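User: For my dataset I need records formatted as: sequence, then structure tokens, nothing else. Please produce one.
Assistant:
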Amino acid sequence: MSTHAPRRKKEAASRVEHLMTKDVCVCRPSDSLNHAAQLLWENDIGTLPVVADDGSNCLVGILTDRDICMAAYTRGGSLSNLVVDQAMSRNVKACTPMTTLEEAAHEMAEAQVHRLPVVDGSRQLLGMLSLADLAREAARKPSAKGGTAGFALVGKTFAAIASPRST
């Protein structure tokens, strides 16, 4: 048995694949914003990954409750007459299941987002990782030294997300 086995086990446990939500509610670019809003409400979530209209699970965008509100306001239309493609963000930061939690937190901070889609090499959606997932993990499993490293990471990430965006 290797003397590095405990370290490898700890490293493996600190990967996105262990915390991500695998059963993710999605929408498609051609869906109405009314349908997307209904999914958000019924599933008590604030973000929907948008996957391709071709029936694949390929990530093409992300849609938030705020995106829906702003589209309704700026386009002056009914949510039934507006489609996801008109409101979704196309430039989506994502991570892989093998991404470390620290790397994912850094991505969230840099992009100023609360959630990251988890994708494979072909951008097929595998799950979602949220800042709340990181916070729950930090509360559940404090660092081995009894310190607050996990809480510090979550706090630093949240502070970056909450900072005014640079223009």
